[in-house]
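Incident log, structure service

09:12 report received: a user says their structure output differs between two submissions of the same chain.
09:20 pulled the input from the user's history:
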Amino acid sequence: MKKPAPALTAERATELAQLSELRLAHFQELTGVQPGEIGPYIVSADGVVPNGGLGPLLRFPCDPPRLIAFAHGPLSQLVTLPTEYEVAVRGRAEYCAAWDASILEERLAEVIREKDRLHKPERRVEDRLQGQQNASGVIVVDQERQDNLFLAIKRAFEVGVSRDVSTQALMDYLLNRDDTGYVIGAGDHDELKWRDTKGNTQIADKSALANRLSRYRRRGLI
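09:34 re-ran on a clean worker, output below:
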């Protein structure tokens, strides 16, 4: 069911329109949407993500035109922005001259391109391993989402691992210094074992870890 536009005074709409960066709290105030699920999306402090994984379609912070484009695009059947806010944004000097010609269309095109990219089928090492068993009989699964291994990798960067760390160095760090409790030991042949959100043991080999690093860097997750 589509949410009605939140009630905003003209003064507050103008205040919000003057912001160059909008975050979760502003998104909540302008849409009435709280963190959690809304339709096929999940709203969090990082942005709005398709339910089921991959990266954000809308990343916080964002500029006002991108939020408006997103509300008129992917969220058009779910939310309504206050008219006072849209009018105030369109009246900003830096947007006014070009608005009619390109700004909204440009931001909407960015949203659509990001959505297409995130949903484009890709064949990865993890896909080929999905559901197979290794010599020890452990199911090899490497998910394309923010799972426990992602959290362990993110934690490694938070405590000082270099952003350009090699795959081998990251694997060594996770095996020897992980403090999240998600990495539980080494497997065979340059593999590490980790515990998923259901408590099951999963395995990531060096190639799978390299692919994860590449994806996370590309999507700005680390």
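09:41 both user submissions now match this output. Likely a transient worker issue. Closing.
09:42 reviewer note: Residues 93-119 form the longest helix (27 residues). The CA atoms of residues 13 and 85 lie 5 Å apart.
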